[in-house]
Amino acid sequence: MKCPACGHLEDKVIDSRPAREGSAIRRRRECMQCQARFTTYEFIEGTQLSVQKSDGSRELYSRAKLSRGVESALTKRAHNDAQVVELLDRIERELQLQAVATGEITSRELGEIVLSQLRAFDEVAYIRFASVYRRFQDVQEFIDELKRLD
User: Fold this and answer.
1) Are 142 and 134 in contact (CB under 8 A)?
2) Which among 10, 47, 54, 116 could disulfide-bond with 32, CB atoms 3.0 to 4.6 Å apart, if both were Cys?
3) How far apart are CA 12 and CA 37, in angstroms?
4) Angstrom distance (rounded) from CA 114 to CA 92
């Protein structure tokens, strides 16, 4: 592993433990040259998931794209990075479960999974995401969605 401080390629593992509910291994490492400490994660490489868009086209699933949408909904909300990463992990686990047979999920299914997870996580973020995802046409649709939160 290349040291982020000095670029040296030799290090030693100081500590290893399960992370992300057992789906990853977290390792603390120390550079053999400069003694800088850093953390790495190992993941199982899963099958590539594709998303079928509403126009019929397909694109590869992107955690970065999902993260941008979720973080946009969470703007100025009181959540730390670890909580957001855990939320994204829960969404991805649900995606993998739904797409296990085909390796594909529709954008509608993806959006509904995000909404269900956001609703449990932060209702304000849920409403923000829903307003973009469901493309509310008027204030009444927005109010109806708010009433469903009760």
Assistant:
1) no
2) 10
3) 10
4) 9
